[in-house]
Amino acid sequence: MSVPMMKLHDGNEIPQLGFGVFKVNPEKTEELVAEALRVGYRHIDTAAVYGNEEGVGRAIANSDIPREELFITTKLWNDSQTNAAEALDESLQKLGLDYVDLYLIHWPCPENGNYVEAWKQMIELQKSGKVKSIGVSNFELEHLEQLETHTSVTPVVNQVELHPYLQRWRELDAFRAHGVKIEAWGPLGQGQTDLFEIDEVTEPAKKYGVSPAQVIIRWHLQNDVILFPKSANPERIAENFDVFGFELTEDEMAAITDLDLGEEGRGGPHPNEFNAS
């Protein structure tokens, strides 16, 4: 199985499918990431606020995989937006790495008014070599426009809540028009929905002999979205990676796209309303 590579506008490449560790118990992180690496994942997505960067780092250190074959993402937490360099150094120390492949501003926190300054610092961190690519997470178009107004660097990705019940393609395609790739967090609805039980998902699953989760992952992949489903179950970790032996038809894709609930489908906070430190 070969994970497609997507070209970022800064010239770097990113694996389209990865493994996420959001809400993964720090005590279990090393074990689960090691299993993901064994299965074949090479893209690992973590964040300072997850509290499990050290577990990710141990799994990397104990693997026999050359560093250049891995793609590691971490994120700048909200209370560190005025000191990104120190925050990155702390993350690198916990990860046991000299650099990360992608560093993201985790949330814009518009009330705090620091995300533009944080972005300027990220640009300098990229120049230093400690970060290969820089991007954002949970940004709205108005936040992107502020970055482009005050700097000459556009984020390579925007990581947002995205699943069949929350799609927002008009806004996401506007990001893409700026050269920004879209990453999905909560791509399977984070287990808070009935996505695995509805006909639009279960019927293709039966047809192709796969799980409902695999169908939704294919829907993301065929929409050119980068994603990293999370699981604490070794069988599901492998299953979520085994998604390249079938392809959804246009009608099957459209049926899942028609499930969009707009803002009613949002499970996490709206970026304009989240300002936690």
From TrEMBL:
<dbReference type="InterPro" id="IPR018170">
    <property type="entry name" value="Aldo/ket_reductase_CS"/>
</dbReference>
<protein>
    <submittedName>
        <fullName>2,5-diketo-D-gluconic acid reductase A</fullName>
        <ecNumber>1.1.1.274</ecNumber>
    </submittedName>
</protein>
<keyword id="KW-0521">NADP</keyword>
<dbReference type="InterPro" id="IPR020471">
    <property type="entry name" value="AKR"/>
</dbReference>
<dbReference type="GO" id="GO:0050580">
    <property type="term" value="F:2,5-didehydrogluconate reductase activity"/>
</dbReference>
<feature type="domain" description="NADP-dependent oxidoreductase">
    <location>
        <begin position="23"/>
        <end position="259"/>
    </location>
</feature>
<dbReference type="Pfam" id="PF00248">
    <property type="entry name" value="Aldo_ket_red"/>
</dbReference>
<comment type="similarity">
    <text>Belongs to the aldo/keto reductase family.</text>
</comment>
<dbReference type="InterPro" id="IPR036812">
    <property type="entry name" value="NAD(P)_OxRdtase_dom_sf"/>
</dbReference>
<dbReference type="InterPro" id="IPR023210">
    <property type="entry name" value="NADP_OxRdtase_dom"/>
</dbReference>
<keyword id="KW-0560">Oxidoreductase</keyword>
